[in-house]
Amino acid sequence: MGGGDGLFNKEFPSFRFLESISVPIQFLIVCGKNNKLRKQLEVELINSKHHVKIFGFSENIQELMALSDLMITKPGGVSISEAMAMDLPLLIFHHLPGQEEENMEFLYRSGYAFIAKTEEDLSELINQLIYDSAPLRRMKVRIEQNHSTSSARDAIHLIVEAENRGQSPKIKNKSIVKKNLVWR
């Protein structure tokens, strides 16, 4: 997965590097609404030694993630949030400057993601994980241990606290927020 332009763009235009991965594995590639990329990959990977499934826009991303051991992606907020909710380890490949760079650094420091800077790094990391999946298992456990099941409640609590201090953005109907919140 990798955003509107896809993980592979002018800087990384090809998936041919996949053939350097030593043993056949399954790849689920989600192109979103980028039909040009999807068609390109269907042609490019037709004779791949790997079992490759290419998807366009998908309503069932959580199901694809549940089938996966690792998600290769850019560190965009939505993609990484979905992966963290599914306890899915990440391999970050390519990022945009700014927020995505900060996301990547946080994920790496937290032990939730690997980083590949080149196609060679990417295939080397995948090869290593094929033969030694212990780093993936440790990463999954680390994500599970830090997984918040109350993030929505925590966010509302912070909004209400800020509102009580007069620091929050204007909420149109404050009475709804105050009447419906019960903290335990």
Oligomer: single chain
Mean pLDDT: 82
Highest CATH level, the class of the largest domain: Alpha Beta
Report the end-to-end length measured between terminal Cα atoms. Answer: 38 Å
CATH topology of the largest domain: Rossmann fold
Provide a descriptive summary of the structure in words.
Pfam families: Glycos_transf_1. Its EC number is 2.4.-.-. The relative contact order is 0.11. The protein has 2 domains: 16-145, Glycogen Phosphorylase B (Rossmann fold, 3-Layer(aba) Sandwich), CATH 3.40.50.2000; 151-180. The strands form 2 sheets. Strands 3-4-5 form a 3-stranded parallel β-sheet. Strands 1-2 form a two-stranded parallel sheet. Helices cover 45% and strands 11% of the residues. The two termini are 38 Å apart. The protein is an alpha/beta fold.
Give a topology summary.
Blueprint: E1 26-30, H1 35-44, E2 51-55, H2 61-66, E3 71-73, H3 77-85, E4 90-93, H4 99-109, E5 113-116, H5 119-131, H6 134-145, H7 151-164, H8 174-180
Parallel strand pairs: 1-2, 3-4, 4-5
Put the structure in a nutshell:
The protein is built from eight helices and five strands. It has 184 residues and is an alpha/beta fold.
